[in-house]
């Protein structure tokens, strides 16, 4: 694991003392060796920023805190900004300055207050996290603490679990709409809202067609100390690709999925020529009988950004590109 290659004693951060890197290590493998942009909200004395800088040797590290540490010197590949995690305008100003195409990884280690964390999450997740990016929320268990501003101890003594089990066993095959007990204070309540978003397809399946949607999350991983949410990304594929050799007309089926409720557009260009719009929609497949000779290629560009979104986002999504060709 990457953390075993570092001198962890040299970093002043509780991520080391709490052994959080044991949790981070397997999750962060896909980003190792890449030129990523990482944002951490809540930097304490700055030690975690230095940790991430060395953990990701090619990364640009950005830190935000309501009060910056006085003695901290950012150093190479680290930038820090002072401001509140609940100030959406401030968050966007920082993001647009240092990561105009979006962050690859965002880590919230700030207030651990449910409402503040929720505000920060949805603003950054929707607007400043790349498709396929990772959002980590630390210390969500504060919602179980009486001595935390919005936390409360879980009272298991008064839990109605036994009555729910009794009703279920007596009414096999019948409708028993009795809610399970649910602790929803502070960060715990917010994390349970994220579970609802993960199940968005089921949540909306009985609604009118126009209101149905898939989750914005590819998946959510809940550990005892950190919750990881991966943002779903648009996909583009073709089959067969490459085409079999031959001179007659070849057909390949191009499939796409925007990954969310937005409408996507599929464009094709032949041999680098002018692009043509061939299909739109959240997802779909279209047969493309344009590959005619061994020298001809069809390059498709796919954008998942609806026309109402900013040009920046549209430009980013147009990176979903495939080339289809014949074997010589």
List its salient traits.
Rossmann fold, four-stranded antiparallel beta sheet, 14 strands, 328 residues, alpha/beta, Immunoglobulin-like
At a glance:
This protein has two domains: about 190 residues, Vaccinia Virus protein VP39 (Rossmann fold, 3-Layer(aba) Sandwich), CATH 3.40.50; about 90 residues, Immunoglobulin-like, CATH 2.60.40. Helices cover about 25% and strands about 25% of the residues. It has nine helices and 14 strands.
Rg estimate, integer Å: 24 Å
* Mean residue pLDDT: 83
Q: Which blocks of ≥5 consecutive residues have pLDDT under 50?
A: 293-299, 304-321, 323-328
* Record field, number of beta strands: 14
- CATH-derived topology of the largest domain: Rossmann fold
Name of the CATH superfamily of the largest domain = Vaccinia Virus protein VP39
Sheet with most strands: 7 strands, mixed
Series of secondary-structure elements, N-terminal to C-terminal: HHEHEEHEHEHHHEEEEEEEEHE
Strands side by side in the biggest sheet: 3-2-1-4-5-7-6
Topology overview:
Elements: H1 14-17, H2 21-28, E1 37-41, H3 47-55, E2 60-65, E3 78-82, H4 88-98, E4 103-108, H5 114-128, E5 129-138, H6 161-170, H7 186-198, H8 200-203, E6 217-222, E7 226-231, E8 235-239, E9 250-257, E10 264-270, E11 276-281, E12 283-291, E13 298-303, H9 311-317, E14 320-324
Parallel strand pairs: 1-2, 1-4, 2-3, 4-5
Antiparallel strand pairs: 5-7, 6-7, 8-9, 9-12, 10-11, 10-13, 13-14
Helix pairs in contact: 4-5, 5-7
């Amino acid at each position: 694991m990457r953390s075993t290659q570092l001198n962890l004693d040299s970093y002043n951060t509780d991520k080391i003392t709490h052994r959080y890197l044991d949790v981070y290590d397997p999750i962060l493998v896909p980003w190792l060796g890449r030129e990523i942009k990482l944002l951490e909200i809540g930097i304490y004395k700055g030690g975690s920023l230095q940790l991430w800088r060395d953990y990701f040797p090619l990364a640009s590290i950005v830190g935000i805190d309501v009060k910056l540490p006085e003695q901290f010197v950012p150093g190479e590949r680290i930038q820090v900004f002072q401001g509140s995690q609940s100030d959406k305008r401030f968050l966007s100003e920082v993001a647009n300055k240092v990561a105009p195409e979006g962050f690859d990884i965002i880590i919230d280690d700030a207030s651990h207050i449910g409402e503040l964390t929720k505000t920060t999450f949805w603003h950054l997740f929707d607007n400043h996290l790349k498709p396929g990016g990772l959002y980590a929320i630390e210390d969500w268990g504060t919602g179980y603490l009486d001595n935390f501003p919005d936390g409360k101890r879980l009272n298991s003594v008064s839990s109605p679990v036994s009555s729910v089990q009794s009703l279920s066993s007596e009414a096999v095959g019948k409708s028993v709409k009795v809610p399970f007990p649910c602790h929803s204070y502070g960060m715990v309540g917010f994390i349970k809202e994220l579970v609802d978003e993960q199940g968005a397809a089921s949540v909306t399946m009985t609604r009118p067609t126009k209101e149905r949607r898939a989750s914005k999350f590819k998946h959510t991983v809940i550990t005892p100390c950190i919750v990881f949410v991966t943002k779903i990304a648009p996909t583009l594929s073709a089959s067969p690709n490459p085409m079999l050799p031959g001179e007659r007309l070849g057909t390949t089926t191009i499939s796409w999925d925007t990954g969310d409720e937005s409408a996507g557009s599929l464009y094709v260009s032949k041999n680098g020529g002018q692009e043509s719009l061939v299909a739109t929609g959240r997802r779909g497949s279209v047969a493309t009988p344009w590959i005619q000779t061994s020298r001809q290629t069809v390059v498709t560009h796919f954008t998942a950004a609806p026309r109402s979104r900013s040009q920046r986002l549209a430009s980013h999504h147009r990176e979903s590109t495939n080339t289809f060709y014949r074997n010589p």
